[in-house]
Amino acid sequence: MTDDLQPGFTRLAPQTGTCVRLGPGDVLTVVDPTGVQVSDLYCVAADDVRETLSSGRSIDFENTIRFGTGSRLWSNRSRPMLTVVEDTCGTHDFLLTPCSQQTFDILYPEFEGAEHPSCFANLVGALSPHGVQPDQIGTTLNIFMNVWADAEGELHIDPPPSRAGDRFSVRAELDLLVGITACSAEKSNGGVCKPIDWAVTRSGDGDR
Predict the structure, then answer these.
(1) How many Cβ atoms sit within 10 Å of the Cβ of residue 151?
(2) DSSP 3-state of 13
(3) Distance CA 166, CA 102 (A)
(4) DSSP characters for 30-71?
(5) Which of 1-10, 63-72, 91-100, 109-118 has the lowest mean pLDDT?
(6) Residue 77 pLDDT > 70, yes or no?
(7) How far apart (Å, rounded) are the C-alpha atoms in residues 101 and 114?
(8) How many CA atoms lie within 13 Å of 66's alpha carbon, on the beta-carbon side?
(9) Nearest-angstrom CA–CA distance, 25 and 56
(10) Dihedrals phi, psi of 169, to nearest 5 degrees
(11) Residue 93, SS3?
(12) Using CA atoms, how far apart are residues 2 and 174, in angstroms rounded to an integer?
């Protein structure tokens, strides 16, 4: 485990989120600084927020549920939004929706309905100032999340295999508003929610 923040990176505290604006060619890098922590990613087109990230179209057009270097993430209007350009972990999920208060009410009975931070609420908070309505936020790309299906098709969530310093980078293909989180669901993060670091390399910086 390390608490060192790399130069140029910003740290998301556990169970929080933010919005990042990207132009075409900009690269967003998400780092797990301590290991075993998920980050949810969702995006919309900056010029028309009704164009949103689509798990279904991405799975359809890429013909896979395993997204890594070279994979493209598509919009509900069948346009590439992001291309994965670096992935040191190799395990991510594009099937499950972001955790919400209802997630904890239904799947975490031990919380007895208590209010709980959630990725959905954090994405709403990050994107709503830009005109994104809660109902527009669908399935997220869950970076470093370890979801797998057994022979009967039942889904299982194991702790993320990400180690301290693992990186996941995506290049914007459109002008985008991107919401990212340090996931709030304890069971998705090995029992403890931890921070996430992020940085943007602008297309004009000349080092990519």
Answers:
(1) 5
(2) coil
(3) 30
(4) EEESSSS--EEEEEEETTEEEEEB-HHHHHHHHT-S---TT-
(5) 1-10
(6) yes
(7) 9
(8) 6
(9) 24
(10) -125, 140
(11) strand
(12) 34
Token pair for residue 205?
A: 């910086």
pLDDT in tens, 67-76: 999 999 999 9
Enumerate the β-bridge partners of residue 168.
Answer: 30, 87
Answer yes or no: is pLDDT of 33 > 90: yes
**Closest listed residue to residue 171, CA positions, set 28, 18, 9, 51:** 28
Q: Which of 86, 129, 120 is nearest to 102 (CA)?
A: 120
Asked if 169 and 200 touch (Cβ cutoff 8 Å), the reply is: no
66/94 Cα distance (integer angstroms): 8
Structure tokens at 35: 């290991």
Q: Within 13 Å of residue 46, how many CA atoms lie on the same side as its CB?
A: 13
Q: Are strands 10-12 and 155-158 parallel, antiparallel or unpaired?
A: unpaired
In SS3 terms, 147-207 reads as EEECCCCCEEEECCCCCCCEEEEEEECCCEEEEEECCCCHHHHCCCCCCEEEEEECCCCCC
Residue 146, number of CB atoms within 10 A of its CB: 20
Q: Which amino acid is at 96?
A: L
Query: Which of 1-5, 78-82, 110-114 has the highest mean predicted lDDT (pLDDT)?
Result: 78-82
Three-state secondary structure call for residue 22: strand
Beta strands across the sheet bearing 10-12 = 10-12, 196-201, 27-32, 166-172, 80-87, 72-74
pTM of the model as a whole: 0.95
